[in-house]
Amino acid sequence: MTEAVGCAGGAAEGGAGGPAGADPERDRATEELERELSVLFRRARAASGEIAREVHPELEPAAYGLLVRLDEVQPERATDLAAYFGVGKATVSRQLRALEDLGLVTREPDPIDGRAYLMRLTSEGRARFDRVRSARRDRYLSRLSGWDRADISHLSRLLHRLNELAPGN
After folding, report:
1. What is the pTM for the complete model shown?
2. 3-state secondary structure 8-50
């Protein structure tokens, strides 16, 4: 997601909005976006450690995102996971190996490519992930209880659009 900040800021630096300074209001809005995303990312990094420990005490924070993605698309190849997150295959492979060592994911041969493996949640991984995701969802619902459902949906759509700007999409 770090790349998304660069992309968002890029609009005022010569992207679709023209060079910086050409539209002061757009520049100001982009600076506000950068500030708010910086706060969001810092808080998310801090929370990711807690969330990972809830799944398993030895789980590293960055690996939780792999569980989220596997929940959505499993089975999935490590190369596809790396491309989705915009990180190197070695990074994802290391995290998947750790998840496998913890009994949270399993690998199986890819029937299409015998050299590759498909990753999926184990039953233990599924149970732990579902428990943590449910608790996390409850926390979101509590924090957003004063928000209109349409505002939550709108924010989700806008974040999706921002994520689509990341390299590799």
Report:
1. 0.71
2. HHHHHHCCCCCCCCCCHHHHHHHHHHHHHHHHHHHHHHHHHHH
DSSP secondary structure code for residue 53 in this structure: H
Rounded to the nearest 5 percent, the helix, strand and coil shares of the chain are: 70, 5, 25
Helix axes 2-10, 149-164, angle to 10 degrees: 90
Is the peptide bond prior to 75 cis by the omega test (within 30 degrees of 0)? yes
Q: Which residues contact 41 (CB under 8 A, 6 or more apart)?
A: 1, 2, 5
**Cα 51 from Cα 123, distance rounded (Å):** 19
The predicted-structure confidence for 130-139, as pLDDT tens digits, reads as follows 999 998 889 8
How does pLDDT run across 14-60, given as a tens digit for each residue?
445 556 668 899 999 999 999 999 998 888 888 888 889 999 999 99
